Give the backbone structure.
Amino acid sequence: MWWSDAEWAALADGRTCGMCADAHLNENQDSLLVASTATTHVRLVRNQAHPGYCVVILRDHETDLADLAPGDLAAFWGDVQRAGRAVATVIEPRKIDYLVMGHRMPHLHCRVFPQHAEDDPHRNVDISDGPEYPSPTELRERALLLRKAWLAASQ
Ligand SMILES: [Zn+2]
């Protein structure tokens, strides 16, 4: 069963949205900040079962791609592409999947989800793989490498 109308309204309410609350922080419970633009925050997810796994979060609280004006839509995807290029440079995965879901966290974000040589391409994507949590030091080093690659990556 899908959420009740009241549950969905509460989830989609920007005033109580968890991503609005902590997407901009250097570090939060789920991720570390890699870079910010006028449109998005790019974050390295703490669960690195898929090394390089990042999330690109829209700054504004919108629940769906359909809600974005054309300029914002282009800027969002530009940041997603740039994040993917940074991940490719630093991590060198075999492929990067780009996942826009949000049925549990209806604040527009795209998961930049690398697939590596040891991953089975026949298996369905599971963003909860692992978890594998690198040490805080390792995570910060990876975030710094991604930030350097982000700064070097052009759109
Ligand atoms: Zn939000």
